[in-house]
Each structure stands twice: as C-alpha cells, then as structure tokens.
Design a protein that fits this description.
Elements (H helix, E strand, L loop, with lengths): L2 E12 L2 E12 L3 E6 L5 H8 L7 E6 L2 E3 L4 H6 L2 E4 L11 H6 L5 E2 L3 E2 L1 H15 L14 H14 L4 E5 L7 H16 L3 E5 L3 H7 L2 E6 L2 E7 L5 H9 L17 E11 L5 E11 L2 E6 L6 H9 L6 E6 L2 E2 L5 H6 L2 E4 L3 H5 L6 H5 L10 E2 L3 E2 L1 H14 L16 H13 L5 E5 L7 H16 L3 E6 L2 H7 L2 E6 L2 E7 L5 H8 L6
Parallel strand pairs: 3-10, 3-11, 6-9, 9-10, 15-22, 15-23, 18-21, 21-22
Antiparallel strand pairs: 1-2, 1-4, 4-5, 7-8, 11-12, 13-14, 13-16, 16-17, 19-20, 23-24
Helix pairs in contact: 14-15
Length: 505
C-alpha cells in the first residue's frame, strides 16, 4: 500500500499561540489512523488545515506523493478528501437521496431533478459500502446512526478516498457503533483511508491500525496496532498516569432523597415528552439515566429544577412535595445541578471566577449585606478557598470565565455546586466536551460526593460514563423509563439494546 496523505512540519499559530508546532502526520491507503489529543491539543486545527478551512503558516501536504495546496474545502473535495463533522451538515426536510446528491443533482429534460436516478445512485452506493439507507426517507425522521451513514455516503458520492470522521460515535448507541465499525471495515477493504478523531480510548484501540497522539500542538508519538494499550495512550495524552475512578461504593445507600412519581410534561413543540416517569434516588447512590439524546432527558432536568411546568405527577425531596417550589427554593432545600451546557445555563460568561462561584447564594449571608450589597471580602475568601481546593487554573479570581478553557469552566461549576453541601446533585452531561484529564477529575469528584452521602442523578449520552459511575441504571426511551437495572446485574449490550427501544423481556 502507498501513502495516501503526508503532512510535513505543519505549523499554525493564532494570536501568537502555537496550535500546531511542526506536526508530521501520515495515513496509508486502506488504513484507519486515529488522532487523539486533549482539548486544545491541535487535532482539530490539523484536520481543518487538511480540509482547507485553515491555511498553515508553514509545512507541506502531499497527496499520494504529490505536493498540493489546499485553500478551501472545495479544493479538498476535488483531491478526494471528505469530512464528516461531529454536528451533521444535512438538510432535515430533504430525503436521503436529495441530501447525498445535493450540489451534483442528476437532471432530466434539461430542467428537472431526476429523483429516480438519484435514488438509484444512492441505493448502489449504499450497497457498495455496506451502509444501508432508504433513499426516500426524510432526514428528520431518521435516527442519528442512519443520519451519520448519510453523511458518509455524501462524502463518498463526491469521490472521497480519504475520510475524516470527527467524534463519529459521540451520539451513537453501542449497536450503532458496531454498525459504524463494520462500515469502516468495508471502507478499508475498498482501500479508502480513514482518519478517526475520538476521545473514547476503548473505541480507538478497537478500530485503529495506528494512533497518533497530540499534546500542546506537538506530536507525542504514534503507536502501531500491536503496541496499543489504553493505559499507555492515556499517559501519552495527559503526560501522567490516569487512575481509574471505577470502584465499589463503600457506603451503603440510605433513605430516598428524591422520588419522581408519574411525571408528565410537554416539550417546546407542545408534544408530550415525559410520559409518566417514575424513579427514586437514594443517599450515597449514583442513579445513571442512559439514553440517546432527544428522548426526554432535557425536559426531565428542567422539570426537576422547576424550569418547566409539569402536567401531572409529583416530585418529593425527602418525602416532601416540591413540585410547586421555585428554582431558588429547590436550591435552598439542597438541590445542586451541573447543567448540560455550562456556557448557556451554568455560568455568566462575563462575570469573574469569584462572582460565578457565589451564584445561588449571593443574596444570603455572609455574601449579602443588608445595606451595602455584596460582601466582597467574603466573596474573595470563598473564591481563594475553592480555587485552591478544586485546582481552578485561572490567572486570578477576577478573570472573566469567558477566557477560561472548557475544562476549567467546568471546574468552576463543579466547585460552586458541590461546595453548597447539597443533598441531591443532578449531573447532566457533566463531561461533555472535556478532555481525558478533566473528565477524570469530574468523575472523581462525583464519586467523592456520593461517598459523603449525597444522592446523584447522572444523565449522560456516554454509555461508558454511565457504566463506570452508576450504582443503578435506568434507560429512558421516548419519554419513558423502560427498565431499571443494578449495575452489577447488567452489561453494555443489554443497556444498548434498551436505548434503541427494545423491551425488557
């Protein structure tokens, strides 16, 4: 096999900060070469250069031995490079075939779209690469796994010989991941080259022929298939050993902290998205809720926090109903929440670190003074304490959180919420967008809070996270809890099947 791509001494800086520092990277024909790196390591910049979205300051790119200049995505496509982005670039109201041929539409009688030919070409392409799709199906009716196949077929339809997959498994069930890996195996047989970008070490180890690790814009090393080890890769990623957070719960679960009974609620489109939800969370327990995104998780969190009206049902905290309590009252009664979008609902980006750390208790002593507003001295003391305890990497406590990394922003949220000594923590997608080091930190803190007696409701689209942290696991599908399982009595296959709507027979 020959070399499909060779990138030599690629250098790129933004405002004086090196994003790529003389990076060498190559991919063989018919190879899956994975690219790993923490947030800010430079992998996205490197792939953006290869796809023509950025121009390198220095360096060369060779396609099949010939040096090329890639100054736009159109140029990259013309050279046989395709990219499937983490957030799909499909038109929801169009059919599968219409999305695939968009921009290269077959025409009949000089004016009209030849829909029959479009469907025929789509069927032939899907059969060739083992990516089964219905050409006539409308995109917005399809599950995300099928939409991803459409994205891949769209790239292949445009002649892609080199396919960049950016976090391709982030919203897939285990069964959909298995289907994707089978499709990648077929692409390899067709001598296509695949660049696989992912933060999931287990998947990278399973699918890759080689893995290149970036850290702080530089190549740490490239590992061949025969030498791939998860522990070694984790150390390469962060420069230190990453301890496992998976450990037995040494504290017996206690009384019920939170009970949900028959919860029903509509979503923003006035469709019933919660359909009689029942569950309970105990002290010293992590209850994980697994499910493909869009099955009622966001509405459930909003209902529990008092941000969305419930149509029916009850919410009890330590046996007392709170469904009519305000958000502020729920916080005062012991609720804390790590929201799914830290920037939109977890932080005020233009506020300082210190100001964000007292949100929710800024109007109570010792931070609020009757006549003089905020007690800035107490605010400063708490900020100093939490910055040290939670290792918040900030120039100073007056720095706007807008200027912090995603991992550091999450530490600010975790520090604020956990320092309230809550009775119940609702953690929604707590590690979304975080690198392996920041993820390990959040996981460790959740387990610490569980072992201190806190009840934790964990909602995550990452099944590995659910399986690693939960004491019990509930599966949500189309607004219903399909099953509730003890972690010790279930496995990835069973939970994955339930996430697709399989009954618990």
């Amino acid at each position: 096999m020959g070399t499909a791509i060779r990138m030599v001494s690629i250098t790129k800086s933004f405002s004086g900060t090196l994003a790529n520092d003389r990076v060498d990277f190559d991919v063989e024909e018919g190879e899956v070469h994975s690219l790993l790196g923490e947030n800010g390591a430079g992998k996205t910049v490197l792939m953006s250069i290869l796809y023509g979205m950025y121009k390198p300051d220095e360096g060369q790119i060779f396609i099949k031995g010939k040096e090329v200049k890639i100054d736009s995505p159109a140029k990259a496509i013309s050279l046989g490079i395709g990219m499937v982005h983490q957030h799909f670039m499909l038109v929801p109201s169009l059919t599968v075939a219409e999305n695939i041929i968009l921009g290269r539409e077959p025409i009949k009688n000089k004016f009209w779209l030849d829909t029959s030919k479009a469907a025929e070409e789509t069927r032939a392409l899907s059969k060739k690469y083992g990516l089964e799709v219905d050409p006539t199906a409308v995109i917005n009716t399809l599950p995300v796994g099928v939409q991803q196949r459409v994205e891949i077929l769209k790239a292949l339809f445009r002649g892609a010989e080199i396919l960049i997959l950016d976090e391709p498994t982030s919203v897939l069930t285990p069964q959909e991941v298995e289907g994707l890996f089978k499709a990648i195996a077929t692409l390899k047989q067709q001598r296509k080259s695949v660049i696989f970008i992912s933060h999931k070490l287990k998947e990278v180890c399973a699918i890759s022929d080689r893995i290149t690790v970036l850290r702080k814009g530089k190549v740490v090393g490239t590992v061949e298939r025969a030498a791939i080890e998860i522990e070694k890769l984790a150390k390469m990623l962060v420069g230190r050993e990453i301890p496992s957070v998976l450990k037995e719960n040494i504290v017996a679960k206690g009384r019920v902290v939170l009970r949900a009974e028959g919860l029903k609620a509509f979503n923003d489109r006035k469709i019933l998205s919660l359909k009689s939800i029942d569950f309970e969370v105990h002290e010293s327990e992590i209850l994980g809720i697994a499910g493909v995104e869009g099955n009622g998780q966001s509405e459930l969190i909003e209902v529990l926090m008092g941000l969305r009206k419930i149509e029916d049902g009850r919410i009890l905290l330590h046996g007392k109903p709170i469904e009519n309590a305000s958000v502020h009252e729920r916080i005062e009664k012991g609720f804390s929440v790590i929201p799914e979008d830290r920037q939109k609902t977890g932080l005020i980006l233009d506020f300082s670190v210190a100001e964000n750390l007292i949100l929710g208790r800024h109007d109570k002593p010792p931070f609020a003074e009757k006549w003089f507003g905020l007690n800035l001295e107490k605010e400063s003391e708490l900020a100093d304490e939490l910055i040290q305890e939670y290792s918040i990497q900030t120039p100073n406590k007056e720095t706007s959180v807008r200027h912090l990394s995603g991992g550091t922003q999450q530490r600010v949220v975790v520090a604020r919420e956990f320092s309230r000594q809550p009775k119940l923590i609702i953690a929604s997608q707590p590690t979304r967008g975080l690198d392996i080091g920041a993820t390990e930190y959040v996981h460790r803190k959740l387990i610490e809070m569980r072992d201190k007696g806190c009840g934790i409701l964990l909602l995550s689209a990452d099944l590995d996270e659910i399986l690693a942290l939960s004491d019990r696991i509930g599966v949500i599908y189309e607004g219903k809890i399909l099953a509730m399982k003890e972690r010790s009595q279930t496995n990835e296959l069973e939970i994955g099947l339930l996430m697709t709507g399989a009954t618990n027979d």
